[in-house]
Fold:
Amino acid sequence: MRSLACCAALSLPLVLGCAPLPTTAVVQGVTVPRLTLEYAGQPYLVRHTAAHPQPGGPSSGLRDHGGKITGQVCGMDIDYQVQHLGDHVQLVGFLDMRLQSQIQVRDHGGERLITGSLHHAVVDLHLRSNELVGTSGYRHFHLIQQGNRLVGQMAAINTDTLTEVIIEGRDELWALPAAVQAAVLPSLLTCFVAKIGAYGRSPLRVGFGGRPGAQPRESSSIYQL
Structure:
């Protein structure tokens, strides 16, 4: 029923993505089984079904179906169809089965670009070897590497209030396939932070790898505007 609802809500070009998932892929001329993989962190748990067994980087030139990524990130259900399109990977789907979302990920100029939208919130993230800057979920970020962390600050759009951000597992983030990075990272950056007094906010603390965590439904910042 979930798949039928998804297909009914999508336009014709995207309905094609709701067809049965492929079970094999051709790698160096050999037909091999596709993979089902799970990834967990704080707070997320996602599954990549019918993943390509050798995707390479997002701009590696591969043109093929990329399977499907489903699960929960920051209290939101995610459901993305994945396509490898040569110079980038495209994710199209829904948050909580009703908010449309589309994300692209590509490598360009020595950085990984993750762009698109989470419902009405713009995604424009620049992931570098030692830095993460950009926008996601009505928040602006500037984080730098400290050991296996990315540490820095974020500011909500149209405010001057800065909030501390700590992302654990920088190495685990870079170890993820590009499609999974694109599915998880933008939504992870929208995780709930508590108010402290009239203007303050608790730090945003999230992480890649380890045991899965969870947050309450509709607590993501994309629900706040």
About this structure: Residues 1-6, 8-17 have pLDDT under 50 and may be disordered.
